Automatic annotation (TrEMBL):
<comment type="similarity">
    <text>Belongs to the bacterial solute-binding protein 1 family.</text>
</comment>
<keyword id="KW-0813">Transport</keyword>
<dbReference type="InterPro" id="IPR006061">
    <property type="entry name" value="SBP_1_CS"/>
</dbReference>
<keyword id="KW-0732">Signal</keyword>
<feature type="signal peptide">
    <location>
        <begin position="1"/>
        <end position="23"/>
    </location>
</feature>
<dbReference type="GO" id="GO:0042597">
    <property type="term" value="C:periplasmic space"/>
</dbReference>
<dbReference type="InterPro" id="IPR050490">
    <property type="entry name" value="Bact_solute-bd_prot1"/>
</dbReference>
<dbReference type="GO" id="GO:0055085">
    <property type="term" value="P:transmembrane transport"/>
</dbReference>
<dbReference type="InterPro" id="IPR006059">
    <property type="entry name" value="SBP"/>
</dbReference>
<protein>
    <submittedName>
        <fullName>Extracellular solute-binding protein</fullName>
    </submittedName>
</protein>
<dbReference type="Pfam" id="PF13416">
    <property type="entry name" value="SBP_bac_8"/>
</dbReference>
Length: 410
């Protein structure tokens, strides 16, 4: 009898110690603006899915080489946050991503967000946030000086003159890093394309070699970059993202050209910041001045992951689409959503301005997301930064973009 009881106890111990195994997956992300918000999201997911452990990996800028190395080794993270369009198309064409056709999570997103994650007619990622880049401005400073948010380029020039006269920096700078001015040059270029050709024709023409990046009014393009630089902090070359948001948040500068992720960090500097959000007015026709807004980031599942890891990754995407996941994404990660009927009312302020502007005027697509990745990461970002720092001429920037685009599409 004792032997039988001992055997049962031993079996019970074995069964207890052999509970469900925990699947460990890695989630790569590049948006470092609100790491605490993402960590909270992942922690809540793990509470709801105790058999899945998620390790976070951040590579904020120029992650191409790191991801290329991991891809060649068959070790891509199970979940990858990617910029929309070109990155998704590149990874899907190389067989790095799982086809999400027919999944429940894809059925929950608005149809207009699907082109951003589609390759060869199939969705290869989950579109998440709809983001905008434009002018974030301090409403209190504008009110104190009796200024209205500019709707035309001429009005912007007057606003900058008034701010300079009052001893206030018009635009908080960010030239120590290349990514923000990379967004700026492509934003202005995309706006100028409205006078030249359709966006699809531009991308097709560049890919075929029939067009130059200089097909727009390049004098206008670079004169706007000159104007932008002339209205920055005097130490612009030394300012990174944190310095930019500090300058804006403290009221040293009245405006910053940035995505709304920059507003989140500025709010950490000044929780009472009263800000608005408007398009950067390239033209004197207000109807043509639209926010640079599109699906920003998305999540893809690595085709190199094991079947168990793929299932865990899909569980994370499904959880993000749940009511709880959406609520936490908006309220803690501070980003909008691409899901049908998503509630973003808690974001308020500049986010309301973005949705109102897009609803009234439409938006400019994030065309840089359709450039070959190397063109945006190298030729546009570096070229714009080098131009602003007076180490490269306008014609050199255009020539570099053309040559790198041609090399990338051979």
């Amino acid at each position: 009898m004792k032997k039988i009881l001992l055997a049962l106890l031993t079996a019970a111990v074995v069964l207890t110690s052999c509970g469900p195994a925990k699947t460990e997956i890695e989630l790569y992300y590049y948006k470092q603006e609100n790491q605490d918000g993402l960590k909270l999201l992942v922690n809540e997911f793990q509470k709801d899915n105790p058999n899945i452990s998620v390790k976070l990996l951040v590579i904020p800028n120029d992650a191409d080489s790191a991801m290329s190395t991991r891809a060649s080794q068959g070790e891509l993270p199970a979940i990858m946050q990617m910029q929309s369009y070109a990155r998704v198309q590149e990874y899907a064409s190389k067989g790095y991503l799982v086809d999400l056709s027919g999944t429940e999570v894809i059925s929950k997103v608005v149809d207009s967000s699907l082109p951003a994650v589609t390759y060869d007619g199939k969705p290869y990622a989950l579109p998440m946030d709809f983001a905008g880049i434009g002018i974030i401005y301090n409403k209190d400073i504008f009110a104190d000086l009796g200024l209205e948010p500019p709707e035309t380029y001429d009005e912007l020039e007057v606003v900058c003159e008034e701010l300079q006269a009052a001893g206030i920096v018009p635009f908080a700078a960010l030239l120590k890093e290349n990514w923000s001015v990379g967004h700026f040059i492509t934003m202005v270029h995309t706006a100028l394309l409205q006078d030249v050709c359709s966006y699809d024709d531009f991308i097709a023409g560049m890919n075929s070699g029939d067009l130059s990046y200089g097909c727009v009014d390049t004098n206008r393009l670079f004169s706007i970059l000159d104007f932008y630089g002339a209205n920055m902090n005097s130490n612009a070359a030394e300012m990174d993202g944190a310095a930019q948001q500090r300058s804006f948040g403290t009221g040293e500068a009245a405006m910053m050209v940035q995505g709304l992720w920059g507003y989140i960090d500025a709010m950490k500097v000044n929780p009472d910041l009263n800000a608005g959000f408007i398009p950067f007015p390239v033209f004197n026709d207000p109807a043509k001045n639209k926010l640079y807004a599109d699906v920003d980031s998305c999540f893809g599942i690595s085709a190199q992951a094991s079947e168990e890891e793929k299932a865990a990754a899909m569980a994370f995407l499904d959880w993000l689409s749940s009511e709880k996941g959406q609520k936490l994404w908006v309220e803690n990660y501070k980003l909008t959503l691409s899901f049908k009927g998503a509630d973003v009312s808690s974001l308020g302020g500049p986010y309301d301005d973005m949705m109102a502007s897009v609803g009234e005027k439409g938006s400019l697509p994030w065309l840089f997301s359709q450039y070959p990745t190397v063109v945006f990461e190298d030729a546009c970002k570096n070229g714009a930064q080098q131009y602003m720092l007076k180490s490269k001429t306008a014609s050199q920037v255009i020539a570099d973009i053309d040559s790198q685009w041609a090399a990338a599409t051979k």
